[in-house]
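[recover] target loaded
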């Protein structure tokens, strides 16, 4: 990790400019997605969901596969129980990443991952100056906030479930079709 506190002001300013440009670009792409439902924009939303989900999955798996290094890093943060937080963040990132990749409960997963990214930005980014928490975490935060606003996009289980429910082919019990004792249908 690179400590930004030891960098010169010009390098910090350049990093902030690049980050702001990247955030403007992401906002523009996602606004285009919001303006064009069912078309190319929905594909951008799905690609954003997949990319963010894969990144979260990779970082979540690292919390378990390289547990000693992650725990050493978490011990530097002002957390009451770093041993617990490493596992908690790992589970949130793996579970949220898988939900986002499949497009199931996307908005709920995005809320949990947004909280995770806010914590990463505040605790490891601003407090300790870790580069990944000051560059990648804000981009992921913008992505998950956009997914909270726009939904899962095309090619998602959320969309498939919504279509099935709207078409009437879902398994929603209706009192008019229930059997009453004796095998007759209730009308």
């Amino acid at each position: 990790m690179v400590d930004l506190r030891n960098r010169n002001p010009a390098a910090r300013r350049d990093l902030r400019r690049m980050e702001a440009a990247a955030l403007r670009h992401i906002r523009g792409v996602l606004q285009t997605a919001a303006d064009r439902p069912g078309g190319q924009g929905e594909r951008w939303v799905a690609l954003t969901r997949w990319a963010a989900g894969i990144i979260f999955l990779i970082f979540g798996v690292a919390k378990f596969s390289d547990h000693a290094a992650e725990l050493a890093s978490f011990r530097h943060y002002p957390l009451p129980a770093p041993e617990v937080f490493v596992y908690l963040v790992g589970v949130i990132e793996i579970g949220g990443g898988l939900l986002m990749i499949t497009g199931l409960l996307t908005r709920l997963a995005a809320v949990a991952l947004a909280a995770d990214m806010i914590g990463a930005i505040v605790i490891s980014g601003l407090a300790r100056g870790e580069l990944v928490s000051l560059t990648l975490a804000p981009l992921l935060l913008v992505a998950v906030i956009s997914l909270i606003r726009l939904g899962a996009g095309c090619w998602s289980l959320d969309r498939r479930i919504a279509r099935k429910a709207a078409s009437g082919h879902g398994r929603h019990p209706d009192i008019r079709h229930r059997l009453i004792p004796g095998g007759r249908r209730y009308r």
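[recover] notes: The chain has a mean pLDDT of 80.
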